[in-house]
Amino acid sequence: MNRGQTDVPPLLRLDDHTTILPIIHGSGQFAWLTRRFLLEHRFDCVAVSLPESFRESVEQAVLELPKPSIVIQKPAPTFESNYDAAHDFKGSYDDSDADDFDDDGLDEIASSYVPIDPCQGVIMAIRAAMGEHIPRAFIDLETNHFHPFSTVMPDPYAVRHVQCEKFAAAVLPSIPRPSDEQTRDRMAYMAARLVGLSQTYDQTLLVTSVLDWPWIREAHRLLKEGKGRDVDAFEHDHVSVPQTYAVDPKTLLFLFGELPFITALYERARRELEEDANLQIDGVKELLIAAKQSYMSEFKNRARRVTPLLLSKCLKYIRNLSLMHRRMTPDMVTIVTACQQILGDQYALHVAEIASQYRLKRSVIDPGLEPTGNEPITDSSNIPFHEQLTDAVDPDLDPDHLDDDPFTADLSDEDIADFGSWQFEGEPTVTLGIDQGRLPDGDIVSLVSRLPGPPLTWQTLSLQRRPTKDERSRWEYSWNPYSQCSYPPEDERIEMLRNRVCERAQAIMGQDLARTEKFTTSVKDGIDIRDTLRHWYEKQIYVRVIPPSRGKLDACLMLFDSPADPRDYPWRTTWFAEHQWESTLAFFASDFSKEMVGPGIGLGTYGGAMFLYPPVPIPDIWMDRRLNFTETLEERLIAAACMHSRGRQIALMSGLPPGAGWRRLARRFKKQLVHVPLTSFSDEEVQQLRMVHVLNGSEVRSYASEFIRKA
Length: 711
What we know:
By secondary structure, this protein is α/β, with parallel strands linked by helices. It is elongated and about 105 Å long.
């Protein structure tokens, strides 16, 4: 049951017939508050701070939600002139002077627009009023050249725990008085319109910015005292008819007040009748989980393990960064920066891409369209929580299961990578930028919002973007198959890993010769607690003696993926050292030509590798007939290492200890495998070192760093 108007806090009431709800534009939290306020109280009319000329276009666009759109009002011409300066002064100046004359003319008047954003409080008020069949009033002054009025505001999340009237009262001392005459006239005109509406409707609600609230209240008080101006005292500008445009999905970040991903969650909650009070915070968790699924889908077995512990660290990092910036809710830069620091550039790139995606099924956005199989996929809300925390790729990404939810659609890997490429056929589309937009006719115009939120600060993120399909095809076509080389920084890192593996293998070899003896004059290599307790009755202390390891390790094996599927690693070759500090390298990896990351730059993934140091010339192990008795890729590497190694021991880094078959293979060559667990090294380091970039000639090394991304 709706409560009566007497429940409205006195601070929000202008008189017995008029209530004003101060909000922060572009906030999902205030949009939620607006809808709740409308449903909890009885109103006969809802007034919004928009001119009457926007009524038809805005209300029609609101009816099409959740489809995003923008209503643009171009500036109307203020004068007409038949004067042709170029004709009268023909021959008196050259073309360059004509260009200078045009540039030094009158400043361009920015076009004003209304974002049809589900997380915009004014749009939510119109949407809720239309749903409840409440009359709407557009009471702002018609202005041809709109001057926005905005300033820095507290984090809107505070209204989740503080009542709206207390929030408005707290920010009241910091609200500046409007400095321009147009803004003051707009406040006075809206106050005069409210007085007129109070004579027609019993209860009227005005939804406007918290910055306008005190000055509308002041103008309303002056009118009641007979000192203000009535409606007839104001003059409207001549304005053009607003036009409604669809928005390029890739540029929705410039339209919405919240992240497009969070906005889609609000729409999903509205459609499914879910609780949406905490979506602004819980949506960040869903964003990280959805990014994990996309990340695992792209990198598969060479992806980092995104564990619940790492996700919790990432959320803690996001919280701390937000508090340092004096915010309660994180912005996109904070989220991506934290993910980049904790989980690497590749995962952060997926977070940035998904955060800017309005992840609703196309048939949900526009019910008149038939599914085409290219609709964007959903968020992860329908996945059980215990499955969200696993490292496996989510089974709901299987095309056989994606039709079960109205917010999902069948997508291939390429469709997921190129999300946002769909358009609404036959509709004029605007591509947005920072305070600018490209209209369907190609003109670029300056834009200013009629519902301005707090000022935004744009920052640059150092993330290497993913190449497009056309770029990959062009780079693959121009590849020269007779020229290839490695990327030197990766050579140095993999050689450093080889050194560390050999050092740990040397230490393991020494531990096999360790012995204990009674303490005499020195503790040697440390007290042996186990033997000391075992001989406690002797009242003696036993110390551990580890003699220097004997033998030389000149061969090192690294098996990153075992057992390895030969179909996943078709590229098998042997590389020779370019200088004395490099090893002779034989490996099997994925096909680099299938993943082009730059012009003349291909990316492969090591499955296993063999290093011989000091470097020695050997036949290509993949063509050597003496090794044809082996059956698997790993056995061929082990046999080649045993054949070409001059030492008795061979270092082997793998996830599991070598089995009986591998040990028999080593004994066949009278060699011994010294196992170094793969878990001895961080997962981040291993996944980074598994990436091998192949360059199409030594000249590519000069610019390769501009295209190579970190794991």
